[in-house]
Amino acid sequence: MAADFSRLIEPRGVAVIGATEDARKIGGQPMRFLTEFGYEGAVYPVNPRYQTVRGLRCYASAAELPQPCDIGLIAVPGASVPQAIRDLGRAGVPHAIVLSAGFRELGERGMELQRALDSALADTGIRIIGPNCQGVMNLRARAYLGFGHSFANPALKAGPVSMVTQSGGFGYSVVSAAQREGIGFSYVFSTGNEANISSLEMMACLIERPEVEVLVTYMEGLTDGRALLALGERALQLGKPILVWKVGNTVAGRRAVASHTANLTASAELYRTAFERGGFVQIRDIDDLIDTLHVFLGGRLPKGKGVTILTTSGGAGVLMADRCEEAGLELPLPGQASIDAIRPVAPDFASIGNPVDVTAHFSAAWQEYNQIIRTLLADPSVDLLIPRSIGGANAEPWCAELLEILKGTDKPVIISQNEPPERIQSMIAMLREARVPLISTPARCAVAAGALSGFAARLRAHALRPAPQPRGVEPVLLDLPAEGGTLGEHRSKAILAAYGIPVTREVLLSPAEVGRLSALPFDAPWAVKIESPDIPHKTEAGCVRLGVAGLLGLKAAAREVEDNARRHHPEARIDGILVTEMARGTEVIVGAVVDPVFGPVVMFGLGGVAAELLRDVTHEFAPFDIRTARAMIGRIRAAPLLTGYRGRPPLDVDALADLLSRLSWLVADHAGRIAEIDLNPLFLGERGIVAADALVALKPAP
């Protein structure tokens, strides 16, 4: 359940700690905003240096504050913040917004002050936004609780959008840009260091509010990926999109060295996976944000992927068609009834396909143009319509009639702008009033249409999603060593086998036992490997021999891998020589990591080049059922190779799905000790699957 931040969002009274008359100072700006911009709650200046500030009684200490006071807005030097928090606690104030800096953002230099702040928060129970934030806006209540250029604008209008941003300056510049495009925000929270209230907590609260139709977030990073997944799930339940602008996605993220799995699981990929599971819509620029807000605020969602383009410019239509397909949309041809209805009113040289191009010569015939719009909106193949606007003197009458037409349909319509905005201001105002999106370029129309269609598809899939299946394997108590680090292949495979994951038949022998060997329990050819927890990458160390036949060959191979191991790592612990059966089939790679943000995650891809060079892999958050595993397999680009591509026999995808689900339960059950699991390679055949190699990396026991 979302935390109750109602008194933080709608404060009846605000105390400004560090208040001053000087509007150039951080403590003076919110005093001006709160007394001049329409806030109707109580304002309490706090500063021992003054008797009054802006005509209001000034309190020497926050401990003296009267009620009701719901927020302490702290604008004093960082060293004074912990005492201000304690004073607010004595006055019964439940929340604070800490504008002050100098805490953990300074690294070790700020940690002593951070600990003092944490202690004050623990003792008082106060929940805070910040520190080191730019502040909070409630434009519905005209509460400007912050500082900076964006706060100094009393003309900002309230609207149905809210935002939580991890960058104050940039976030508030987005608010200003949206206002210029006619989009208003109800609430804006700059979360700063998130020492107490996280951006996820704030979003979970805001998305529940009925006045918030769309939520926006500018996100640099989180500490609780599972809370992000829960937020995305709730967004789908409510049918409210969260437009997420995630930055910091470069490959300079965390990389572990033990396994291939970790090298294929970067934080950025896991964020993308999380966004694709929930009610998130990813954006990459301010234009994306503005356009996507416009289409979602239209309040209409397409029932399918079919988009029809109506244009008076062939070039614009072709460009838009290209971009629509790139955005995952489909461009079905109009039905024959629509073609028959359009031909009598369209020019002889019109192209009645998709795009429907009536050419520039038709621009003046706005009534016939609207007749074509009526026809297309009635066509069952049209889920979303993108008509190019009519300009010039006919813009207003065309728009007025179009708005009447749209009252009779629930299909979304995105207008592709055909005139400079200064020439169609009246039409823009009419469309904005009716919440009909008008977007300035064909390509941007397609991007916004793709965002709308993608969210609608996710909602449909969520509504049809069956309940999770029961777990397919019972939890198993594992005998794990207390120390951390990698386990050898033999011991790693034993852990997999405990969860029913098929592994190759094998025997572990000492060098002396290999020398006395007269037979093996399975036939050649064999793989001969060193067994050592200190040599996780055996191939690179020359410690693997494949396709070995005959006992003499086996004994020679054993000597070679042992000699190579000792040269590669003279101090390595050697547990013996591992002799395994040779596996056959299509090579795939499967693994799991316990990510510090998202917890246990399973990765799957085809083996070799497809995984490591092309990065054709997919991820799923553990644990999950077999149905989810099948969907996971189908998401890789090379999935057709597993199901019988071009006459090849289909492989045992059911066995692969079962293995993925079992691995997900293994890593979820033991996430406290397991750091990584690497099954590479796995061999998938027409019947069955088997792990030919495995590596388990452990975290030290607590």
Structural description of this entry:
The structure is a single chain. The longest helix is centred in the middle third of the chain and has 23 residues, at 442-464. With 702 residues, the chain is an alpha/beta fold. It has a 7-stranded mixed beta sheet, with helices on both faces. Strands 21, 26, 27, 28, 29, 30 and 31 form a 7-stranded antiparallel beta sheet that branches. It has a 5-stranded parallel beta sheet with strand order 2-1-5-6-7, with helices on both faces. It is built from 22 helices and 31 strands. Residues 251-262 have low confidence and may be disordered. The two termini are 30 Å apart. It folds into 5 domains: 1-154, NAD(P)-binding Rossmann-like Domain (Rossmann fold, 3-Layer(aba) Sandwich); 166-185 and 200-297, Rossmann fold (3-Layer(aba) Sandwich), CATH 3.40.50.261; 299-464, Succinyl-CoA synthetase domains (Rossmann fold); 505-581, 2-Layer Sandwich (Dna Ligase, domain 1), CATH 3.30.1490.20; 586-698, 2-Layer Sandwich (D-amino Acid Aminotransferase, Chain A, domain 1), CATH 3.30.470.20.
